[in-house]
Amino acid sequence: MPTATARRTTDAVYLHPDDNICVAARHLAAGETIEIAGGRLTLAEPVRLGHKIAVRPIRQGDYVRKYGQIIGQAISPIEPGQWVHSHNLINGEFVRDHAPATAIPPPPVPIEGRTFLGYRRASGRAGTRNYIAVISTVNCSATVSRYIAQRFDRAALRDFPHIDGVIAIKHGGGCGIQYQGLQHEILNRTLAGMARHANIGGYLLVGLGCEQATAGYLLQSQHLVQIGDAAGTRGAPPTPTRSASEGLLTPSAGEGHRGLAPLVLSMQDQGGTTKTIEAGVRLLAEMLPRVNDVRRVPIPASEIILGTNCGGSDGNSGVTCNPALGVASDMIVACGGTTALAETTEVYGAEHLLTRRAVTPAVAEKLLARIQWWLWHTALYGVEIDNNPSVGNKEGGLTTIAEKSLGAIAKAGSTALTEVYEYAEQITNKGFVFMDTPGFDPPSVTGLVAGGCNVMVFTTGRGSCYGLKPCPTIKVASNTPMYERMSDDMDINAGEILAGRPVEDVGREIFEKILAVASGEKTKSEQHGYGDEEFVPWQIGPTL
Fold it and tell me: What is the pTM of this model?
């Protein structure tokens, strides 16, 4: 993470006094002389934007440092001005001092009075969008769910201006799994998290009828009800309809809020594709007036649950967009809200900086347990987490997983780690939290959204275009050339930091954008219609 001592020029960024490398802020030519770290440095070879340059001699076997932290070991001597990358740097072995709960930061200075215009749900949660969802319990019903949702295009919704859309939440699983096994429970948590999400005003479950992931078990185990809205309903809601095979759908008394029994359709009970589609269309048509009859109201910023993710990262992601998002994350926490970090495989190698910030040793141990699980899990398949940086990451200047992870955790800012959650588990803590997810963007964001995140901020260096309905996704670019090349996909240009704009200034811009988007401003991914195909629950284990 950039420190107060980070020194920037238009040529390169020197992040920490302990570093023996700097990071190119533009494409640099061989023989070019730049000013960095209080001296002058002549490049021995061309170095691209985001890549590393040695600023002093590094011997074979020496540790290479960035952000003041070890990112790997040199496998050959490296002279000042030489390019540092995978030809002369490996992750290597070194001991990290996890020191659980030994560096707990003090609470941030509170930010009072900030609000957004959101939807107050009967559950007490705050929504930033108002969708209707058609949720497939199994892949076998995915096409039918899509056909039902497609019947409610913008023309069909013109008399319902307060509904953002009807979306089909479909996936590739739901059968060929052990009943009540790990895959089943993760899928259940994920589907239930989407159904109860504050950005969903109503939903319909659609199954085939013979799948392992039955709607009945989903509803019973997760205590699902229709959310409804807390205020503004002008008429009585329609009586919910259920299929004959789902006769056990009684809302749990533990829900503590007004709820309607969920709507469920089984293709086999309904009599096939066409009849299920028509039944689904009728049910949603009855639902439309109720879901539309809700208005945005002022809601404290303390009810933002911010999901953070990075994809297509480059060597400047940890210099620009991620620390800027960290500033915004700290501001959300200062408002009394929640910010969630994820992607466990992209925390590995930097987890010691998080465990030290944990509020208790028990919270730190939860994170370390997830790291150990990943080491065990990947070893089963002969895979090493050390090889996580992708081809695109390496093209952008990232060399080792330690380097990638140190940059990635900057998204979480500087506040205390208050809790660690399982994948798609409901996020209930305030402050900075962590969720165990893969590093692959679709299942990672899916888990965060299912956990309750109502706004996402997604940083990218190479240029990811990701979005997932029903949660708006703000894109932050790490560098100006990519931002200009893909400006219709990027919401904010953090590359301005390389030209001298303060990280804190960009962080405040991200914070203000979060509140604006939470109030209804459309992100670039929403304008393009992203989010219908990007729901990907994490699947662990064999397909039977």
Answer: 0.93
